[in-house]
User: Fold these one by one.
Assistant:
Number 1:
Amino acid sequence: MVGTKSNSRIAYLQTVVQALALLIGTEGLLQAQSRGELRAPERPNIVVISIDDLGYADIPPFGRPRYATPNIDRLAREGRAFTDFSVSSAVCSASRAALLTGCYHMRVGISGALGPNSNIGLSPKETTIAEVCRSRGYATACVGKWHLGDAAKFMPLQQGFDHFYGLPYSNDMWPGHPDLVKLPADAAARKSSYPQLRLFQDNEVIDPEITAEDQARLTTDYTKRATQFISDHREQPFFLYLAHSMVHVPLFVSAAHRDKSGLGLFADVMHEIDWSVGKILDALEEAGISDQTLVVLTSDNGPWLSYGAHAGSAVPLREGKGTSFEGGVRVPTIMRWPRRIPADTRCDEFAATIDLLPTVSKLIGAERPLLPIDGLDISALLFSENQIESPHASYFIYYGSGELQAVRDRRWKLVFPHRYRTLSGQPGGVDGSPIAYQPAEIELSLFDLKNDVAESRNVLADHPEVVARLQASATEARRLFGDQLTNVAGDAIRGPGKVD
């Protein structure tokens, strides 16, 4: 009896100690979460969904589109909306290079949109998010649009991905481009135009001539490949980069979603994109790994406004794709991680796609790339219950082949004199044909983005101290990355990879 009572006392004391430890641990967890220091479980899965040319106002909670997006709405309800999230440049290849490397696109030498048979691409010397994840034993896959060089040495399997299924560049870079189909079949420009669009699986071309019927299946095919990858790797940590070709023109939609919105082709395409997001979320749930997965939904730049009815919207932001105004570089972004990111919340602090790589590195316990990068860890912005300030003291916005067109901080944006394209308030084109942009010029301007997100009021004269501070940041940007507008060459540009 004495031994039994002694054992009971020991068991009781152990229970008390465990309860106290749990209580203390829970309190510490809550305190850490409030400070934005919540520790993630070991090696979470990472899913990045990039929707091509998705405008700021094309999805809730950033805008109020006429069409329904129940699955994207669910993502926002279960996650956090980032209302001030920027790309490096408002054009395809530059933006994607920045997202995957954590660098300003100028540092890695990728500007504009690379065409077929380009003699440059993302240098294999750069470290991508895929390679960071691979260093921690992750399976990696790129599904969709690549657009970082179509020579073999630049393709996804040579940049850290185990699998690739998709197109080497934009879906309009094909003989069916609207500028070409209106030309006579024997016209020199048409004959010397884009080659046939190819579909890749890993390093092999599995369809050498993509047709309109093939394009209509792209979103569905991408989604099937992505969900299969999730199912196949439910027991292994993974990084999935799902880069949709839509809603970039030309717009195509599968038969299952055609005319479902009742609001035209663009809305039908968004109907299918939303369906795809739902299938990804369902696949994570079915695999039992939803709570172990960070899902990021974003865009590569703003809407291609000249296409009018076939383009999205950035209202109330100024302009769109191809400009350094907010309509071009600010993109709708949602992040969801159940039990980690507070549900149904928003972050109004500045962050950018270059921050994804260093943030993922921290979350999975990986080393940062050996070469310098520009992104910052924003995990505090993901997890905190309280308002945490952006870690960015300044952010540089380049366009073209090297023009520093703007520099900003958490609140202010200084825009340098430059030429830009605009529709001057005119509606865009119809039926997939664009209208011409008009050239315009802007003088040196300061905008208060917290109170004037439309960049409509130049308050340069009212805040000389802000102008001086941002000018100093611009001087540093020019030292690093140069500036064609002021004829300065940068000393931190590593340059792209080149075809031998």
Note: The two ends are 85 Å apart (CA to CA).
Number 2:
Amino acid sequence: MNDNQFITVAKTNEIAVGKGKAFEVHGQLVAVFNTGDEFLAIDDMCPHMGASLAAGHFDATDCTVTCP
């Protein structure tokens, strides 16, 4: 997949401000977070525990995610 492609995974009102939600994109789980100004996406799997990062704590101020 080209890095410049956009894929619609949800409507903007489906992800609350300051929260994340996981979506499957081409067989991979992606966590999408709503900062209030924009939507950011990362790999959903925590590298050290394998947990869903979408279920973790998202800090919209500094754009960090803490695994659950």
Note: The mean pLDDT is 91.
